[in-house]
Amino acid sequence: MPPEIDLKSCLEGDLGAWDRFCDETAGVVMAAIRRTAGSQLNDPALPDAEDLLQSVYLRLVKNDFRLLASFDPAKASLVTWLTIVARSTTIDALRRRRAPVKSIDDENASEPEAPPTPGAGSSEPLERLAPLHLLTDRQRLVIALLFQDQRSVPEAAAILGVGEQTIRSTKHKALERLRKAMPDPELRPD
């Protein structure tokens, strides 16, 4: 992404700067949307990729550019930050999607499906497998890259523009937070 993006002008309401910002960042945002939603982009209950792209930019300008103004280059690169915003927006859209409803009077109702188990190759979104709402945006992004996208630590570090140790540390903290939220296995009924 070129360094000539002028966020200050965008925040001051310069439409030309905003257009340049959108043009220069659309590829990064769209890539994050496509990675996050995956094959679910074909689901008619989910907005298409273009709608999600617009949702990301609407989120950035909402409340007088409040989210865009929160970008801190000392904490993350613009690419990393936009990827997190795009993933978060897409995950929110996935959560809002309505689950199919089955009538309890349906005589053909079958036994409920067993809950999915996390693992390599699972096409189930991570949000249905673990309470990811408990994690920070960055932790959710790292967990999704490592477990859902099946990226290696070096690949995740390259995508996010951070060191490998940062990825390992973020993963460790996220897993610890998820473990604390899970019920104690000793207390589960048999």
Features:
190 residues; mainly alpha; Rna Polymerase Sigma Factor, Chain: A; Arc Repressor Mutant, subunit A; 2 domains; globular
Q: How is the secondary structure organized here?
A:
Layout: H1 7-11, H2 15-37, H3 49-69, H4 78-96, H5 126-129, H6 137-148, H7 153-160, H8 164-181
Characterization of the model:
With 190 residues, the protein is mainly alpha-helical. It folds into 2 domains: 1-97, Rna Polymerase Sigma Factor, Chain: A (Orthogonal Bundle); 127-182, Arc Repressor Mutant, subunit A (Orthogonal Bundle). Helices cover 58% and strands 0% of the residues. It contains 8 helices and no strands. Helix 2 (15-37) crosses helix 4 (78-96), helix 6 packs across helix 8 (164-181) and helix 7 packs across helix 8 (164-181). It is globular. It starts with 6 loop residues before the first helix and ends in a 9-residue tail after the last helix.
Give a brief description.
The protein has 190 residues and is mainly α.
Main sheet? none
Helix content: 55-70%
CATH architecture of the largest domain: Orthogonal Bundle
Taken in chain order, the helices and strands follow as HHHHHHHH
* The CATH class of the largest domain: Mainly Alpha
- Supply Rg: 19 Å
Give the termini distance in whole angstroms: 54 Å
Count of helical regions:
8
Number of DSSP-assigned strands:
0
| CATH fold field value of the largest domain | Rna Polymerase Sigma Factor, Chain: A
Tally of structural domains = 2
Mean pLDDT: 77
Parts with pLDDT < 50 across at least 5 consecutive residues: 107-124
Oligomer: single chain
CATH 4th-level superfamily of the largest domain:
RNA polymerase sigma factor, region 2, helix turn helix motif
